Amino acid sequence: MKILNVVGARPNFMKIAPLMECYKEHSCIEPILVHTGQHYDQAMSDLFFHQLGIHEPDVNLGVSSTSHAVQTVQIMIALVRWFQRSYCYFTRMILVNCEH
């Protein structure tokens, strides 16, 4: 089963780290890690992945840092475009980490 995990901001990285580790114990799960790219500093974003032991994202949507409304729209558009050109039609679950 493929599980799509979408992360973007610092709290998301901390929430997804234990899940990514847990997935390793279940060979029936193929986790796909999608980074929205919304972090304004790529070096900081890379540091979170390294320090938390999360593998590099399978996909980086490259959304820029801007207002919340614009970021939300850019993420939605980028995700839909990626879905349309990828194998994610076969994904059974999408996990989006939120701060709220």
Notes on the protein architecture:
The chain has 100 residues and is α/β, with parallel strands linked by helices. The chain is 43% helix and 18% strand. It has three helices and four strands; from the N terminus they run βαβαβαβ.
Quick recap of the structure?
With 100 residues, the chain is α/β, with parallel strands linked by helices. 43% of the residues lie in helices and 18% in strands.
Radius of gyration: 13 Å
Main CATH class: Alpha Beta
Label the overall shape: globular
Strand order across the largest sheet: 3-2-1-4
The total beta strand count reads 4
**What letter string, H or E per element, gives the SSE order?**
EHEHEHE
How many structural units, i.e. domains?
1
The total count of helices amounts to: 3
The residue ranges in which pLDDT falls below 50 over 5 or more consecutive positions are none
CATH topology: Rossmann fold
What's the CATH H-level homologous superfamily?
Glycogen Phosphorylase B
Please identify the structural class as seen in this structure.
alpha/beta
What percent of residues adopt helix (DSSP H or I)? 40-55%
Report the mean per-residue pLDDT as an integer. Answer: 82
Strand content: 15-25%
